[in-house]
Task: structure prediction
Amino acid sequence: MTIKVYRVASDGTRRTLRNEQAVPPADSVPATAGFPPCTCPRCCSSAPAEAAR
Result:
């Protein structure tokens, strides 16, 4: 996987801020989309079903 960072001006022109870099894939993905992952009882995957209501 690669990533390249660039800025787009209002007229549509692009300027590269960081050259393309190889990025290793993650070994695991957090269960939530938040960063850092939420640890509240409602979001925690190990919480009982009643706590998620």
Observations:
- The chain has a mean pLDDT of 77.
- The first strand starts at residue 2 and ends at 8.
